[in-house]
């Protein structure tokens, strides 16, 4: 389960939604905890179409996580606008969380003119101790997206997110970018390696593909190609197994094959400038090459 989704569930617990199996939205939230994002999403979509504002915002958010659900901006916008048109009633948590979804849509769509407005929301005091928002803001500073680029500010925000986070998710995201960021001045392979033990110790079955993918990138950044190949191969095999049950995962396989090929050539893998920093499953260096199949 993605880190930001975990926070959403905690908010819903506080407002009494989780455990409310008498509603379709309640069932979807429980499925999200027990069975994962992919199986819960269709139930959220059904509930959203039946008028649940909570389900609509959850469906929108899941299409923005780039975790078990590949990013789909059009779907995210559809359910976001459905949430806005619904009756929020006394659901105050939506006033807190809807701007978070809006921010992600603005940063991930093709309109760079609204990036500044998105980062203004993230810099608001109400999100200053929210690890998920701090991580997203850190990413915008590291790429100069909606703000003036500042690698130092980005790293401070990532470290602050780690301090506030009671999960390994901030460690995970920071380790990933320290290994694969396109700017050499941002990368720090030793710091990324130092963050791995927490990520490994708390890895869950549903997140193993991303954990192993990150481990491989960090080992490659440190010149440890044997381990990079081992972990990337494990991630690829696990993704293939998962795709037998969830066919949409097949579209993610070429990206992991791409990275494996790079490691087999004893080279680290980095993002390329111009690639979306919000989608780790985009093609990059292998875009114009045939990925290795194993």
Model description:
There is one protein chain. The chain has helices spanning 3-14, 24-34, 37-49, 53-62, 73-85, 92-108, 115-122, 131-143, 151-164, 169-180, 189-201, 208-221, 225-245, 253-264. It has 294 residues and is mainly alpha-helical. It folds into two domains: 1-110; 187-294, no CATH class. Helix 3 (37-49) crosses helix 4 (53-62). The radius of gyration is 19 Å and the shape is globular. The two termini are 27 Å apart.
Class derived from helix and strand content = mainly alpha
Number of domains: 2
* Average residue pLDDT: 84
- The percent of residues in helical segments reads 55-70%
Calculate the terminal CA-CA distance, rounded to whole Å: 27 Å
If you compute it from the alpha carbons, what radius of gyration comes out, rounded to the nearest whole angstrom? 19 Å
Q: What gross morphology would you assign?
A: globular
The amount of beta strand, in percent, is under 5%
Biggest beta sheet summary: none
Number of helices: 14
Number of distinct beta strands? 0
- What ranges have pLDDT less than 50 throughout 5 or more consecutive residues? 9-21, 288-294
Question: Which sequence of SSEs, written as H and E, runs from N to C?
Answer: HHHHHHHHHHHHHH
Summarize, please.
The protein is mainly α and 294 residues long. The protein contains 14 helices and no strands.
Q: Which key features would you list for this structure?
A:
294 residues; globular; mainly alpha; 2 domains
Write the layout of secondary structure elements.
Layout: H1 3-14, H2 24-34, H3 37-49, H4 53-62, H5 73-85, H6 92-108, H7 115-122, H8 131-143, H9 151-164, H10 169-180, H11 189-201, H12 208-221, H13 225-245, H14 253-264
Helix pairs in contact: 2-3, 3-4, 4-5, 4-6, 5-6, 6-7, 8-9, 9-10, 10-11, 10-12, 11-12, 12-13, 13-14
């Amino acid at each position: 389960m993605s880190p930001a989704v975990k926070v959403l569930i905690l908010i819903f617990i506080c407002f009494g939604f989780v455990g409310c199996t008498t509603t379709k939205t309640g069932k979807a939230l429980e499925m999200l905890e027990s069975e994962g994002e992919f199986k819960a999403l269709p139930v959220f979509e059904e509930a959203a179409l039946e008028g649940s504002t909570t389900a609509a915002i959850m469906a929108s958010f899941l299409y923005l996580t780039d975790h078990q659900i590949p990013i789909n901006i059009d779907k995210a916008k559809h359910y976001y606008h459905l949430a806005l048109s619904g009756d929020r009633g006394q659901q105050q948590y939506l006033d807190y969380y809807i701007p978070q979804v809006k921010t992600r849509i603005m940063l991930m769509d093709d309109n760079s003119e609204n990036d500044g407005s998105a980062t203004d929301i993230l810099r608001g005091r109400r999100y200053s101790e929210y690890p998920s928002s701090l991580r997203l803001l850190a990413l915008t500073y590291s790429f100069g997206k909606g703000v003036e680029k500042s690698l130092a500010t980005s790293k401070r925000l990532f470290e602050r997110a780690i301090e506030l986070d009671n999960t390994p998710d901030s460690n995970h995201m920071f380790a990933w970018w320290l290994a694969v960021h396109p700017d050499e001045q941002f990368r720090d392979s030793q710091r990324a390696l130092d963050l791995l033990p927490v990520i490994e110790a708390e890895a869950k079955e549903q997140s193993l593909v991303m954990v192993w993918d990150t481990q491989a990138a960090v080992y490659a950044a440190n010149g440890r190609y044997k381990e990079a190949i081992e972990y990337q191969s494990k991630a690829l095999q696990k993704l293939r197994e998962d795709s037998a049950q969830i066919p949409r995962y097949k579209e993610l396989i070429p990206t992991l094959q791409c990275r494996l090929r790079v490691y087999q050539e004893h080279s680290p893998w980095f993002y390329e400038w111009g690639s979306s920093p919000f989608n780790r499953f985009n093609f990059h260096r292998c875009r114009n090459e045939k990925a290795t199949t194993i």
